[in-house]
Amino acid sequence: MGVEIQDGQASLIDKVIDRGICVRCGACVGLCPYFGYFDGKVVVMDRCNADSSRCLQLCPRAGYEGTSPEKVNVAPSDTSEIGPYQDIMIARASKEEIRKGAQYGGTVSALVIYAIEKGRIKSAILTDIGGPRSPGGRNAVNKSEVLSCAGSRYTGAAGLSSLNSAISAGETKIGVVGVPCQMETLARMRLMVPDGEERSNRVALKLGLFCTWAVDYRRLKTFLAKEGVEGSIKKFDIPPPPAEVFQVQREEGWREFPLSRIRPLVQEGCLFCQDMTAELADISIGSAEGIEGWNTVVIRTQLGGELFSEAVEKGWLETDSLPHDNFEHLKEASLIKRERGKKATADMVRSKL
């Protein structure tokens, strides 16, 4: 399958970056030497004339048909609001050491550490906590590195740039933890020309995170500075409805802001997303609404089911049934995002006519 030069970097810049719908997944950063990531923004450092156009093929907002997930039968194939799955439950890490630094139940950290220690993966692509600049990708290889990345960021962080670096370094058996757009990129990778299948085979585990939207890091930083929130931030959180607040934790305590003030900071590209529960992952994980300290877990593939069952059997995870009301709320929220994304996409298509 050939790809024309004009469909490459120039097309990606025109369709995604210049239109302001980049979601900072990091798929192009490090894949193409002319894309970089700096303090919350994907930047074009020079023009590229390569004829492979891999950046365009991978981008979840470019909509390249040749690598559409449907072509490898990994897109949602049923009518479930949360996509295909084998089982669903709530879970949390059994070890207090893991739970204490987690956003909710520590299930992601427990699974990643277990997979590394048992040799299922050699490393995991995570998102670090940031510092003077925005959060970014990190390739964690042991428990301490995994735990240092625990918690949610709520901003784009270009984590897949670290996957590209790991692949370029010859690494194999890589785990990836990411949001739905990043799981889509991994699905597109298998059909990418010329080397998509080889790169895809380096990824041994995909853990997806529930995501309604992510905010633009630079906009959030500016907003918080105007509100007097600067310096080190320990944690962000969005409690379940009906709270409707965005929480910021610093050493001196919590600050709360109405979500109505945060939504204008959401990345424009997130508005086109139709996937809330990371349907293309092996295991999808999010908060358990109204159940403090627990995660909702969706087992999607045989590989994911085997790993999860092992972690439970070996005492790394505790599980319980997902309450019916939680399941119904999850399906409703997922459907709302799907319909919102469809409408935004249709509106964009009509605007081009």
Give a short synopsis of this structure:
The protein is an alpha+beta fold. The chain has helices spanning about 10-15, 55-60, 95-100, 105-115, 145, 160-170, 180-190, 195-200, 215-225, 260, 300-315, 325-350; strands at about 35-40, 40-45, 85-95, 125, 135-140, 175-180, 205-210, 235, 245-250, 255-260, 285, 295-300, 315-320.
Based on the coordinates given, report the CATH architecture of the largest domain.
3-Layer(aba) Sandwich
Helix and strand sequence: HEEHEHHEEHHEHHEHEEEHEEHEH
How large a portion of the residues is in β-strands, by DSSP E?
15-25%
Taking pLDDT < 50 over at least 5 consecutive residues as the criterion, the unreliable ranges are 1-5
Helical proportion, percent range: 25-40%
CATH hierarchy class name of the largest domain: Alpha Beta
Per DSSP E runs of 2 or more residues, the count of β-strands stands at 13
Specify the number of helices.
12
Biggest sheet: strand arrangement: 5-4-6-7-11-12-3-13
Shape descriptor reads globular
Tally of distinct domains: 3
SS content category: alpha+beta
CATH topology grouping of the largest domain: Aspartate Aminotransferase, domain 2
Q: Mean of residue pLDDT?
A: 93
What Rg, in angstroms, do the CA atoms define?
19 Å
Distance N terminus to C terminus?
A: 28 Å
Largest sheet, described in full?
8 strands, mixed
Structure description:
With 353 residues, this protein is an alpha+beta fold. The protein folds into 3 domains: 65 residues; 213 residues, 3-Layer(aba) Sandwich (Aspartate Aminotransferase, domain 2); 48 residues. The chain is built from 12 helices and 13 strands. An 8-stranded mixed sheet has the order 5-4-6-7-11-12-3-13, sandwiched between helices. A 3-stranded antiparallel sheet has the order 8-9-10. Strands 1-2 form a two-stranded antiparallel sheet. A hairpin with a 2-residue loop joins strand 1 and strand 2. The longest helix is centred in the C-terminal third of the chain and has 29 residues. The chain is globular and about 50 Å long. The two termini are 28 Å apart. The N terminus is likely disordered.
